[in-house]
């Protein structure tokens, strides 16, 4: 044996040299950046663009009923700014905007945003769609980056700037002409492709637009700085946002907004860094829908805040219902590993993870019980104990999930997962050595049959191994084993120690009546079994109640040595004493299989 380091990585052969480092293309001078030392202590303003950016990215865009379902969901969740479409782009979008107005579906405190390019006929059509909306924001955008200036539009910097300025003027003029005086009207400007644009030029165009809109006091302007295509690491975007926030005039009348895409997979991190850098608002989609790799995931962003003790100002207490509505409306499934919302995100299959979670829940239950003993109500006690749980960043209950799916069993699972699942589904509290024994049985099952073992299947495996059919009728198992306990009568000698026991036992189909005395019921039972020719010694015994009330049952776990073989038996019965007898019979039958 000798020691050595791993072999080095080898050249890929891919044409990496055709790509330029982002900071070789875009210059950012911010040596005194302050955002890394900031913390996010309050939720930003949220804008959902599910009905615009999210919808336009679908293979089959949503119809009016699906759009309405999403709109109603967003309102219910608490969104106060919702971008509902591009009314001038299609009759479908225009009609949807008008349907919300005609149906009175827009709450007075919800601002509707609509998108337009800087073309007169598009602006007129967009404003016409807004007639009757209580709160309306028109969102103007045009691309500023060198690539778009030189290749797409073939316009110089002055021409691109004037395009934004002219569009702003036209929006203001048309709004003055067609909107009611009671309409609360707002304006948003996006220098599209912001991250690829020279910062001084982005600032120049934004200032020119501001000079036309003249923001002051409540007449704010929303300046949206999009990572239209994510090009660099999140810290670079944060530098760009902080630079703009520092240099923008009339900053107190500017809502600095973020619009992140996820091309490099770091849209959420970039948005969080952008908030630390001074932004006030985030645009995105539920579950990260949107063009290419999607917009920033607002669910993840909001619940990241929640996990840090910050109110997200959005109601995500029934995450599965939110997911179901979005999946039905869009025809796109939320992947099972999606943060907070995926089917498997609160689930552990690994044995070591399961064991840690099981112990974590036990510790938390003790802490919560202590707070209740101090006089706190159940809900108050839950909040009073800070959440600290292995592998679970938030409490699944807080987003409407149950604990039943937290631990699931497959071939990678260990005793902790098996014990946790039986505990949550069947109230069984298996002793540690029984956990180890049964986990090996489950391991053999998964190795043989593969796949996941759910709660029902786990109970079937357990009952088949430890219980006769009568004790687990729903498992649909056949009777098994040589012995069956039919009855037991116990009498005491009076000194509360010695017991005399008479049992009725079926041995291989033959009914027998056995009697014996012993130091307690269990000792007497084992003595009575000696007449069967088997040597049984009790090594450990644990029992607990499974339920309370008239139909209460008890579970007993007995570790036995049967003719030199050590194994466990399990018994369930309304009588604790009888359940212990059944546990011994369980061990005997298992030894003779």
From TrEMBL:
Superkingdom assignment: Bacteria
Residues spanning the signal sequence: none
GO biological process, one term: L-leucine biosynthetic process
Cofactor dependency: Mg(2+)
Localization in the cell: Cytoplasm
Record function comment: Catalyzes the condensation of the acetyl group of acetyl-CoA with 3-methyl-2-oxobutanoate (2-ketoisovalerate) to form 3-carboxy-3-hydroxy-4-methylpentanoate (2-isopropylmalate).
Name the record gives this protein: 2-isopropylmalate synthase
Lineage summary: Bacteria, Bacillati, Actinomycetota, Actinomycetes, Actinomycetales
Gene behind the chain: leuA
């Amino acid at each position: 044996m000798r020691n050595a380091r791993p072999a080095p990585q080898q050249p890929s052969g891919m044409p990496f040299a055709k790509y330029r480092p982002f900071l070789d293309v875009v210059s950012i001078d911010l040596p005194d950046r302050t955002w890394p030392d900031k913390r996010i202590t309050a939720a930003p303003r949220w804008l959902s663009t599910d009905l615009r950016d999210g919808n336009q990215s679908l293979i089959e865009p949503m119809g009016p009923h699906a759009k309405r379902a999403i709109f109603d969901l967003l309102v219910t969740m608490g969104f106060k700014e919702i971008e509902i479409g591009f009314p001038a782009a299609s009759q479908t979008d225009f009609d949807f905007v008008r349907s919300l107005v005609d149906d009175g579906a827009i709450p007075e405190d919800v601002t509707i945003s609509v998108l337009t390019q800087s073309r007169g006929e598009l602006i007129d059509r967009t404003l016409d769609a807004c007639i009757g909306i209580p709160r309306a924001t028109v969102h103007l955008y045009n691309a500023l980056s060198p690539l778009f200036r030189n290749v797409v539009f073939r316009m110089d910097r002055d021409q691109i700037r004037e395009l934004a300025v002219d569009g702003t003027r036209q929006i203001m003029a048309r709004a003055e002409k067609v909107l009611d005086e009671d309409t609360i009207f707002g304006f948003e400007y996006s220098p599209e492709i912001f991250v690829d644009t020279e910062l001084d030029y982005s600032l120049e165009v934004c200032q020119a637009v501001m000079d036309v809109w003249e923001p002051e006091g409540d007449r704010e302007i929303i300046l949206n700085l999009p990572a239209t295509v994510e090009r660099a690491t999140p810290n670079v975007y944060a530098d760009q946002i902080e630079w703009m926030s520092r240099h923008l005039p009339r900053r107190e009348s500017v809502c600095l907004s973020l619009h992140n895409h996820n091309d490099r997979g770091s849209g959420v991190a970039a948005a969080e860094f952008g908030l630390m850098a001074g932004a006030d608002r985030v645009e995105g989609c539920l579950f990260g829908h949107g063009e290419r790799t999607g917009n920033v995931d607002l669910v993840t962003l909001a619940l990241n805040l929640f996990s840090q003790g910050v109110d997200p100002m959005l109601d995500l207490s029934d995450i599965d219902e939110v997911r179901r509505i979005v999946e039905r409306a869009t025809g796109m499934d939320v992947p099972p590993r999606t943060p907070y919302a995926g089917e498997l995100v609160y689930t552990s299959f690994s044995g070591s993870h399961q064991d840690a979670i099981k112990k974590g829940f036990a510790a938390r239950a003790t802490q919560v019980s202590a707070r209740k003993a101090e006089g706190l109500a159940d809900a108050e006690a839950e909040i009073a104990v800070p959440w600290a749980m292995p592998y679970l960043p938030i409490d699944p209950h807080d987003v409407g999930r149950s604990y039943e799916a937290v631990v699931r069993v497959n071939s990678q699972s260990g005793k902790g997962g098996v014990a946790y699942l039986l505990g949550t589904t069947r109230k069984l509290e298996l002793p540690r050595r029984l956990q180890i024994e049964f986990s090996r049985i489950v391991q053999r099952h998964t190795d043989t049959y593969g796949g996941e073992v759910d709660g029902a299947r786990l109970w079937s495996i357990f009952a088949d191994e430890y219980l006769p059919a009568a004790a687990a009728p729903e498992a649909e198992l056949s009777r098994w084993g040589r012995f069956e306990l039919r009855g037991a009568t116990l009498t005491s000698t009076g000194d509360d120690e010695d017991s005399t026991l008479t049992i009725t036992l079926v041995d291989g189909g033959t009914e027998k009546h056995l009697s014996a005395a012993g130091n307690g019921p269990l000792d007497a039972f084992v003595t009575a079994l000696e007449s069967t020719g088997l040597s049984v010694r009790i090594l450990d015994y644990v029992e607990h109640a499974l339920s309370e009330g008239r139909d209460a049952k008890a579970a007993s776990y007995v570790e036995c040595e049967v003719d030199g073989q050590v194994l466990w038996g399990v018994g369930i019965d309304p009588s604790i004493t009888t359940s212990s007898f059944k546990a011994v019979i369980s061990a005997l039958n298992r030894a003779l299989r």
